[in-house]
Amino acid sequence: MNHLYILNDGPYGSERTYNGLRLAGAVSKMEGNAVRVFLIGDAASAAHRNQKVPSGFYNVETMLGNVIRHGGEVGICGTCMDARGMSESDIADGARRSTLAELSEWTVWADKVLVF
């Protein structure tokens, strides 16, 4: 089954992005499932590389890497990146700049779309 996770909230402050990535990571490990994550709005900053968080605190960059290591794809809204001053060199390994047009294609591709 094809799963699309659309994340809207910033990586820290609320737990919506955290919980979306927890679920995406778990589903990506299950046989027969394809996972794509699209970061839009404040969630674009979840893909910022070299995040340093307090000891014992979750790290969304690491969580995105978990999805990618299990075959998932991560797209980041390019307009949202620009609005937050993010360049392609700021993006975590395996994630990539994307577009609303690609999000539209991913939405049609997906059997399930979950929005956090």
From TrEMBL:
Gene3D superfamilies to which the protein is assigned, alphabetical: DsrEFH-like
Against InterPro entries, the record matches this protein to: DsrEFH-like, Sulphur_relay_DsrE/F-like
State any GO CC term. cytosol
What is the name attached to this protein's record? DsrE-like protein
Pfam families in the record: DsrE
The cross-references to PANTHER family, in alphabetical order and at most eight, read: PROTEIN YCHN
The highest taxon in the source lineage is Bacteria
Q: Which residues form a coiled coil?
A: none
